């Protein structure tokens, strides 16, 4: 990931291109629309897990959200997101180099946690993926307030699989609509987007 973000950082410095938006623009619109529909207060504390280039946080800031934090374990990603938010004139985003599987003590008390692809990336780790997924859920429980919301977008997991992964401590609130495709007479989704609530 460091190498990938170093390339994106170089590209941004060369031509001002922020890089990949995971799952496309509509994935960000979907998240923001849900927050607005739920009338989530603009000063709610939001954590973007694996923020990458920080574009989701910038869109949230432009939509009026003011208490935004992005973490990534890649220092190059955090550097890139700092530069992108500076270019976009957004200054109220906190960005930190953090390993979500071993979060620091000050990473706690968030009302909303958002994940677009980070759980997927952790799940693909060839070194003890099952243990890392369990640790992810423990970390999520430690940073998200009871009754807080967790919005996850995944291209690796079905709704049923995610319900199983997050059954300890979380309940499903809603499945967000994602683009459908038809193949061999069956209809499916290339992406799953779910909203969980942390149990009391």
TrEMBL record:
CDD domains listed in its UniProt record = AdoMet_MTases
The superkingdom listed in its UniProt entry is Eukaryota
Among the GO biological process terms of this entry, one is: methylation
UniProt domain Methyltransferase: residue ranges: 44-174
* Catalysed transformations (reactions): L-lysyl-[protein] + 3 S-adenosyl-L-methionine = N(6),N(6),N(6)-trimethyl-L-lysyl-[protein] + 3 S-adenosyl-L-homocysteine + 3 H(+)
Q: Gene3D superfamilies this protein is in?
A: Vaccinia Virus protein VP39 (3.40.50.150)
GO cellular component annotations of the record? cytoplasm
What keywords sit in the KW lines?
Cytoplasm, Methyltransferase, Nucleus, S-adenosyl-L-methionine, Transferase
Q: Which HAMAP family match?
A: Methyltr_EFM4
- Protein name (record): Methyltransferase-like 10
